[in-house]
Specification:
Length: 140
């Protein structure tokens, strides 16, 4: 059976959202690599005792990686039933990670809050996932 017979046609939007998230994670990783070179922080050292800006760049990437698996799971569950809504919420979350990182890159950790709107996307797909679970359980 072909995959297009298993998934809703609009699931293609979700796939593009995953691709967008992949490029976001890669971008954040490249920024850490550049900062390692600029600030002389050698592998395997995760954080610098001297360079606050490096730590902020590293932390923006690390924090994103910490929440990324959770987002992927709920994004997928939500997108299986609500592909367009999940994709919109996913784009909000992914875009917010850029805002979060760029704020953090200033060296002022408080500016990471520029990405706080990402919780709309994260909690949105969690709520959609709860709806999917309730449907599967016959509650909705």
């Amino acid at each position: 059976m072909a995959i297009e017979n298993l998934l809703q046609a609009n699931f293609g939007y979700a796939i593009f959202t995953y691709l967008y998230s992949f490029f976001m994670v890669m971008y954040l990783g490249v920024q850490v690599g550049k900062a390692r070179k600029k600030y002389g922080v050698k592998y395997p050292t995760m954080y610098s005792d001297k360079e606050q800006v490096f730590n902020c760049i590293q932390r923006a990437h690390q924090n994103t990686l910490e929440v990324y698996p959770t987002w992927l799971v709920f994004q997928t569950i939500a997108a299986l039933e609500y592909p367009i809504a999940a994709s919109v919420l996913g784009v909000i979350w992914v875009t917010s990670r850029f805002s979060y990182a760029w704020g953090y890159y200033t060296g002022d950790p408080a500016k990471r809050l520029r990405g706080v709107y990402g919780y709309i996307g994260l909690f949105g797909v969690i709520l959609l996932s709860i709806s999917v679970a309730l449907k599967l359980l016959g509650v909705l």
